[in-house]
Predict the 3D structure of the following.
Amino acid sequence: MITISLCMIVKNEEHTLNRCLESVKGIPDEIIIVDTGSTDRTKEIAKIWTDHVHDYKWNDDFAAARNVSFDYATQQFILWLDADDILSTDDRTKLLQLKETLPDHVDAVTMIYAIPQDANRGIVSYTVRTRLVRREKQFRWKGVVHEDLTLDGSYQYHQSDIAVTHTKIVASSAEGPSRRNLEIYESHLERGYDLTISDRFHYARECQVHKLYERAIENYEVCMNHPEVTLENQVFAMHKLATCYVQAGQPHKELELTLQSLTKDVPYPAFSCRMGEHFLKQGHIEAAIYWYRMAYMQPLEDRYAFSVVDTAYHTWLPHQQLALCYDALGDSKKAGHHRQWAEFHHMGKMQAP
């Protein structure tokens, strides 16, 4: 059996920390919590669970803070979580079993990351992240925001089906989305920070959220053809870029990117939906049906595992649009069938219609 250090960085997480730690109770052999400046009861709650609570002066660098948390670890493996992450009962059992049976040659374990969970729409998106790493391999974090684990050298990894669920739901606000991440990037750029290709992608996403479309487009365009970006992530960057063009009032660019994406790889569900929408607008219903069917039939679990999957495009959305298509053809039976499937996926129900 391996031993595990759970390493976390936290700030003002009094409402989430206890739930997170309760969900992994009995798994870590030690818990390391690095606090970056809490002003609520976060540290008080943390000290109920562990004596290893450390202060860290926040410097607008998530990777630096995570690296410090890793430096305090003493066990064979390091598991990392955020305070608003949890493991379900089933996933906790899976992780306990993995702890007992992990082969000696494995250096890192990936887990599914379900983000975020919406009470009305189930899982909105998911990706795969490296969650458990061998301490002696000295994995390090890079990236000031949306940081990633890296290792100089080779390692053996195990791809598990364990899921970590992100519980934070971004509430709508009259003030709009938080500017924290955008401001961190901009403060580093002002100091001459050279964006990595990963930084560029995440900076583009922040710019898009804040409707800074020209800046977002500039950075997405770099990512979608960059040699350091995997094919799957290039296609995902094209998907985000296409959405950005629509939001910026340039819908013709969306069609250009959709057609370009088909020269790169098998159809990504978002682009299949875009092709369906194109033909639906033209009144070519049979062609629209073909592309919407392609969207939900495309298996994603392995091909796009290390990218980000926007679940709407291969679950409820194509079924919803297929219902419209069959209504247009006067086929109420098939339209009703697809409405049932859309509802099933949209509400995250456990039993198929």
